[in-house]
């Protein structure tokens, strides 16, 4: 089944299941983080001065985990005490992230026992720039597709991946592609195919001549609006995983504006013109003087500069991409009551209600407040067969959002809170001290806490968070460190 936008279900902590949820504020869209210390008001600083001073004392204590929810840790020397309480409410939430015009293009199929099956088709259009290519591409010229993958694999690391390349039946736009979108593939005629072993990262693919002739017809357009015609009419290519695929690979796309990267380590089309007598003699052929009149082509090795003194030079030129993306389909497994699932594609994420009231915080002299979540490492590891892997999880983010277009906000704005994975105990720890102080002494910004995984860059990341029914030490919680009463 394909996920639809904005599905959510609510699960409360044991403490909060029979309590009424406190009222929420709603955060307005701004690109800034309202919780940096420089943005506090002077009155707030005065009110929280004791806590600010004593916060310096927890340099070596602030990250200590006080243990089970409800427990307390007291450090006599530092005049601080720490305790843990449950997060009030956690809701699951679904929307759909963008999958086009990103740094990576996911291609493949994998059936994950824990997270369900994912099938992703890569879609591309070559540039129609004539800077590095001569139109028309003759039968004696070569045009190939060069695909470069990063080293990450989602799935079976022992299998050889096989792919087939076809035309697309209808048009598409990379900037509009989202998780769950389908593309129409014309399988009546194969344009190319390739396979790649787990320890290989580069594939160079010959392309069918009939498709090259179709591409030629747009290269030769003389109309002033040739780019618009090309965008609206040319459907491009689909890179389709084979039916027996057991892995997803991630093709590298050249970042926009990254003109300094000439190592060819990204997806490109390779144009090799027919060799001429001038080429054999070391003459450039394009301008007759090795590029002195054209600085762009004369100094860039990608564009065929033959260098000085007749040194042999690679005759290949490289054509970038006009458009690209991935058509990602996910089929979820049967419902499970163990843990919270997170996907960086936003088809599963969490809404957090911490329950930051003065009664729950227990003190107005806060030194450190953390939101803490733990990965279910045992379930994550045991659900993978030998030789199978998932892309490594390293970070999680919390955005505070008041809007209906959740996906756009998460895609375009920096998070309010960020946490790298603590590999010692497989935890994410978000420092929300400043926000907690605004609850006590001021009016906190409007919005709800949305917890998502990694970034949205075309890679596919998934993980499992221990929920409120998991082992006591690993349940979602608030760690609160404050000044001991009577020592302010």
Protein described:
- This protein has 10 helices and 25 strands.
- It is elongated and about 90 Å long.
- Helices cover 14% and strands 34% of the residues.
- Strands 5, 6, 7, 8, 9, 10, 11, 12, 13, 14, 15 and 19 form a 12-stranded antiparallel sheet that branches.
- With 488 residues, the protein is mainly beta.
- The relative contact order is 0.23.
Portion in strands:
25-35%
Total beta-strand segments = 25
Provide the residue-averaged pLDDT.
81
Poorly predicted ranges (pLDDT <50, ≥5 residues)? 1-10, 12-32, 36-64, 68-74, 282-311
Derived structural class: mainly beta
Can you tell me the overall shape? elongated
Q: How large is the radius of gyration? A: 28 Å
What's the oligomerization state? single chain
Distance between the termini: 57 Å
Give the biggest beta sheet. 12 strands, antiparallel
Roughly what percent helix? 10-25%
Q: How many helix segments?
A: 10
